[in-house]
């Protein structure tokens, strides 16, 4: 397929996702960036926010990160984030618990 | 004789329970080491991508960054020593501490003052016992380091280094060295010294192949900003890799030490069993000879009286 590219999402301690995708949307410190196949090489700083990826065969996932890098070269996109939470991995109860803990902490 | 026999039996028993403990520790270390190796493997992609990105920026822009600039005359050095939290790992901690001492001496010979940073309780105890000052110590994660730990350490070291850019700043350093144990194989772990800061960007874990030309990146927002964000992460990731290597080494060293302890205990048990058997046999022999002697004496006495 000509209009897909290799995408890998890498956290500090593991590779979270890798595969073929058609579109990657992420927010950089400069604003949103959208990457499709054969994009020109870019190295940019990601801001805290959401990464949105349309995979081949109409798949889709999102991930939340607190910052990192995106590098695009040779039809490969690499997303480097120290901490990242991907949609199908995260769990609502756990997220809620963490959020409550954080709110309680800030309340103190 | 009977008393010492009991003594030997007690010793055999205590050695046996010791053997059970060391055997258990050996097995635990063996199972954890696989996990530690996996973690090291999983962390590799991040480090690889990061060093690629750093070398890309370094190659295509002539940006001078404080973290990569060699100070003109380095007078103050910091050393981070990665040791273990717990003992019973053979010479693991002492060999890395020895390496640190060697580095210490070398730096002193170069006329630098040395500030020490410690990771691991063993190293902390070593310096405390000798009443030597430690700038900061982190403990409690030596066998399972998390990225957060590495980040904390990295941030502290970078802070000290950045403070060192000002000649007279309190607590600033001009260079940062890292002493940790490199995991070569299950049998070989070597203490290893690297200079962490100022960064030498050229060296990468994996040099790109000659035919693989680095793409002409566009940097957003600017090369400086990208480098600014990249380099601290790069330092953190190097610290993290060192911690992971150290943890795998620690477990391997512990497994090895506990294996030889178990073997030793086995040998001791064999020896004690032999001595105990000998003692028992000697006791029996003595008893028999006493009885025979008594019978003979009795027979002689009755024979004499007739």
TrEMBL record, chain A:
InterPro entries: ATP_synth_F1_dsu/esu, ATP_synth_F1_dsu/esu_N, ATPsynth_dsu/esu_N. It is found in: Cell membrane. GO terms for molecular function: ATP binding; hydrolase activity; proton-transporting ATP synthase activity, rotational mechanism. Signal peptide: none annotated. One of its GO terms (cellular component) is proton-transporting ATP synthase complex. Keywords: ATP synthesis, Cell membrane, CF(1), Hydrogen ion transport, Hydrolase, Ion transport, Membrane, Transport. It holds the Pfam family ATP-synt_DE_N. It is a peripheral membrane protein. Residues 5-83 form the ATP synthase F1 complex delta/epsilon subunit N-terminal domain. PANTHER family: ATP SYNTHASE DELTA/EPSILON CHAIN, ATP SYNTHASE EPSILON CHAIN, CHLOROPLASTIC. Belongs to the ATPase epsilon chain family. F-type ATPases have 2 components, CF(1) - the catalytic core - and CF(0) - the membrane proton channel. CF(1) has five subunits: alpha(3), beta(3), gamma(1), delta(1), epsilon(1). CF(0) has three main subunits: a, b and c. Produces ATP from ADP in the presence of a proton gradient across the membrane. This is ATP synthase epsilon chain. It comes from Nocardioides marmorisolisilvae. The lineage of its organism: Bacteria, Bacillati, Actinomycetota, Actinomycetes, Propionibacteriales. The gene is atpC.
UniProtKB/TrEMBL annotation, chain B:
Gene3D superfamilies: 3.40.1380.10, ATP synthase, gamma subunit, helix hairpin domain. It comes from the Bacteria. It is found in: Cell membrane; Membrane. Keywords: ATP synthesis, Cell membrane, CF(1), Hydrogen ion transport, Hydrolase, Ion transport, Membrane, Transport. GO terms for biological process: proton motive force-driven plasma membrane ATP synthesis. InterPro entries: ATP_synth_F1_ATPase_gsu, ATP_synth_F1_gsu. One of its GO terms (cellular component) is plasma membrane. The keyword Cell membrane applies. One of its GO terms (molecular function) is hydrolase activity. It is a peripheral membrane protein. Its main location: membrane. It holds the Pfam family ATP-synt. Produces ATP from ADP in the presence of a proton gradient across the membrane. The gamma chain is believed to be important in regulating ATPase activity and the flow of protons through the CF(0) complex. F-type ATPases have 2 components, CF(1) - the catalytic core - and CF(0) - the membrane proton channel. CF(1) has five subunits: alpha(3), beta(3), gamma(1), delta(1), epsilon(1). CF(0) has three main subunits: a, b and c. Belongs to the ATPase gamma chain family. This is ATP synthase gamma chain. It comes from Nocardioides marmorisolisilvae. The lineage of its organism: Bacteria, Bacillati, Actinomycetota, Actinomycetes, Propionibacteriales. The gene is atpG.
């Amino acid at each position: 397929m000509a209009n897909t590219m290799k995408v890998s999402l890498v956290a500090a301690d593991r590779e979270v996702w890798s595969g073929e995708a058609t579109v990657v949307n992420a927010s950089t410190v400069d604003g949103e960036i959208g990457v499709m196949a054969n994009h020109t090489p870019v190295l940019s700083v990601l801001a805290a926010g959401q990464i949105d990826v349309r995979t081949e065969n109409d798949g889709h996932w999102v991930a939340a990160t607190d910052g990192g890098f995106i590098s695009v070269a040779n039809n490969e996109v690499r997303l480097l984030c120290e901490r990242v939470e991907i949609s199908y991995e995260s769990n609502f109860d756990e997220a809620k618990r963490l959020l409550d803990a954080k709110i309680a902490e800030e309340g103190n | 004789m009977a008393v010492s026999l009991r003594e030997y039996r007690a010793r055999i028993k205590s050695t046996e329970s010791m053997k059970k403990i060391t055997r258990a520790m050996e097995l635990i270390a063996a199972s954890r080491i696989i996990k530690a190796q996996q973690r090291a493997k999983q962390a590799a992609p991040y480090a690889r991508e990061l060093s690629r990105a750093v070398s890309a920026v370094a190659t295509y822009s002539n940006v001078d960054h404080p973290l990569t600039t060699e100070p003109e005359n380095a007078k103050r050095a910091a050393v981070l020593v990665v040791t273990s939290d717990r003992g019973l790992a053979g010479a693991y901690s002492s060999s890395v501490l020895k390496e640190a001492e060697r580095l210490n001496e070398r730096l002193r010979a170069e006329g630098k003052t040395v500030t020490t940073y410690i990771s691991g309780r063993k190293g902390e105890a070593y310096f405390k016992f000798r009443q030597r000052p430690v700038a900061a110590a982190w403990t409690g994660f030596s066998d399972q380091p998390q990225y957060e730990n590495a980040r904390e350490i990295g941030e502290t070291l970078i802070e000290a280094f950045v403070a060192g850019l000002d000649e007279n700043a309190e607590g600033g350093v001009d260079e940062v060295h890292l002493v940790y144990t490199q995991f070569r194989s299950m049998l070989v772990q070597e203490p290893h010294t690297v200079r962490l800061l100022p960064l030498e960007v050229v060296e990468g874990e994996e040099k790109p192949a000659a035919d693989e030309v680095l793409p002409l990146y566009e940097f957003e927002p600017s090369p400086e900003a990208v480098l600014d964000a990249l380099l601290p992460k790069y330092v953190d990731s190097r610290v993290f890799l060192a911690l992971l290597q150290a943890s795998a080494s620690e477990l391997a060293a512990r497994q090895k030490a506990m294996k030889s302890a178990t073997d030793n205990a086995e040998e001791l048990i064999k020896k004690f069993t032999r001595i105990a058997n000998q003692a028992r046999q000697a006791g029996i022999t003595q008893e028999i000879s006493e009885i025979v002697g008594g019978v003979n004496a009795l027979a002689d006495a009755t024979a004499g009286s007739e």
